[in-house]
Specification:
The chain is of the alpha/beta class. Helix content is 33%, strand content 23%. The N and C termini lie far apart (76 Å).
């Protein structure tokens, strides 16, 4: 298999590698312009871009390119360091006795970063359309609570994790479980699309979990930059703008205040959350507590936990 064939195969699989191409040489050298090699993350080289003097230096620069994601032009020559170095040019002194010069373009080929979207709300659907436009591979995760953590873990497994951006846009369904799984992953960006009030309640819940402070600091809630648009499309655009900003390492701007969560469809029977006063559909309610012969219903595990700690504090509100 040639270097080009191997590169095509690795690209199709979404595996990271470096393509090294000889672009110029001054004889005598064993490599010729146009010759290529593929360098894998373990340092293995497939192909030919020079002899025993060149290969270790090319491998070294290739692994650095994988780490920082930046291409570079590598020059190997007997006079390296004698003159000014140009931007993007890396010089190494050629130790071989031949005295030749090689210039090799070292290009990292990285898989697209993953945009993991939890939920199928209108905002989530718009984000799924915007992701490929700005270079993301979109991964959809169903918001059904049962097993949502495991599904997020699977979506962020392997090389995808450290280059993934997670957006929880469920509009209230399994937010806490989704965020816990995402914040325990190596993803550099985790966001919740929610109203400020809802985001504050979720933060309170997460603060009591066993999360490292640096991981909790990754949470963007409410998600998005303050672009001022109230529609689902505009909120999705503000979230994507924040992701682009984080990926580029730009200074943070004020975040957007999204629309309040859409009201749930009417249910035959409803109850009031004794902690926050929110209306909870009795049918299919997931967070309940039996206390003093009465069943209480909660909008989220955080409210349920608060009630369990001090039920007397919230009983007057229910009455």
């Amino acid at each position: 298999m040639t270097a080009i064939e191997l590169a095509a195969d690795l690209t199709a699989k979404g595996s990271p590698f470096v393509l090294a191409t000889v672009v110029r040489c001054d004889k005598p050298t064993s490599a010729k312009p146009g010759q290529k090699a593929v360098v894998l993350p373990d340092g293995t080289m497939h192909g030919w871009v020079g002899g025993s003097c060149a290969q270790p230096l090319v491998t070294r620069e290739a692994l650095l390119a994988l780490a920082d994601g930046q291409p570079r032009l590598l020059r190997l020559c007997p006079t390296a360091g004698d003159g000014a170095t140009l931007p993007g040019l890396v010089e190494h002194r050629m130790a071989c006795h031949s005295g030749g010069t090689l210039e090799i373009f070292v290009e990292p080929i990285l898989p697209k970063p993953a945009l993991c979207i939890v939920g199928d709300s209108p905002i989530a659907q718009v984000l799924a359309g915007l992701g490929p436009v700005v270079g993301f591979a979109v991964v959809h995760v169903d918001a059904v609570a049962v097993g949502v953590g495991e599904r997020i873990d699977a979506a962020l497994a392997g090389d995808a994790g450290p280059r993934s951006y997670v957006i929880v846009a469920t509009m209230g369904e399994a937010d806490e479980e989704s965020l816990l799984a995402a914040l325990r992953s190596p993803a550099p960006y985790v966001a919740l699309v929610a109203s400020p009030r809802r985001a504050a309640k979720v933060r309170e819940f997460l603060a009591e979990e066993e999360l490292a402070a640096d991981r909790l600091a990754k949470l963007h809630a409410p998600a998005g930059l303050d672009l001022g648009g109230p529609s689902a499309e505009e909120i999705a655009l503000s979230v994507m703008a924040e992701i682009v900003q984080v990926r580029a390492g730009a200074p943070s701007l004020a975040r957007v205040t999204p629309l309040a969560e859409r009201p749930a469809a009417p249910q035959p029977e409803e109850a009031t959350d004794p902690v926050c006063g929110m209306t909870v559909a009795v049918a299919g309610a997931r967070f309940t507590v039996e206390h003093a012969g009465q069943r209480f219903y909660f909008c989220c595990p955080g409210c349920r936990r608060s009630f369990e700690k001090q039920p007397e504090r919230y009983l007057p509100r229910t009455a």
